[in-house]
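Dear colleague,

Thank you for sharing your sequence with our group. We've completed the structure prediction you requested, and as agreed, I am returning the results in plain text so they can be pasted directly into your records. Please verify that the sequence below matches your submission; if there's any discrepancy, let me know and we will rerun it promptly.
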Amino acid sequence: MIFPARLKKDLRAAKGVEALRKVSQAVKVPIVAIGGIDHSNAPLCIEAGAAGCAVITAVIGAPDVRQATANLAQVIRDAKARLERGLS
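Please find the predicted structure tokens below.
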């Protein structure tokens, strides 16, 4: 878990973005960030080396699930584009 998750019953401490960065640098396979990820912090996960983000609450809890999903996907695409341009 990267960030504290509101609905997670397992209350272990969130590991944070720095732990995600260390893991992404240590392995050669794509990793996916999970745990408390939303539109505001998904770019931090991508910048730390995650190939993608797994989310539930960020979209299921939204009034318009389809729009929330589209918005989150765009946020992630934008973060990846900034990384490719060296603008993170």
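Summary note from our side: Residues 17-84 form one domain.

Kind regards,
the structure core
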